[in-house]
Design a protein that fits this description.
Elements: H1 11-23, H2 26-45, H3 53-93
Helix pairs in contact: 1-2, 1-3, 2-3
């Protein structure tokens, strides 16, 4: 049986992107999520070295968390903005 050359994993890259996405730059979290998903799919198919599976999963999860936190934060921000706009006219009427 011939040895099949496996592509090198990008676990370190995915993990770093996930951390950066979580700490300061949400679009990088999307990249971590997408790359992590693709790399895990390639590892399952046997096309990529599975040695970095754990770090790839961690980076993907951090990317997912960064996106979820951004979405929740945006919803809260818009809700507070709407609440502020809705209550502002009544505050000025009583003055």
């Amino acid at each position: 049986m011939a040895d099949i050359a496996l592509r090198a994993h990008r676990a370190t890259l995915v993990l770093i992107l996930g951390i950066v996405g979580l700490l300061c730059c949400m679009p990088v979290g999307i990249v971590a999520w997408v790359l992590g998903h693709q790399d895990l799919k390639d590892m399952d198919a046997g096309a990529m070295d599975p040695a970095g599976r754990g770090m790839t999963q961690a980076g993907k999860i951090l990317g997912m968390i960064s996106v979820i936190l951004f979405v929740v934060g945006a919803i809260v921000w818009f809700a507070l903005l709407a609440l502020g706009i809705a209550t502002a006219p009544s505050a000025f009427r009583n003055a």
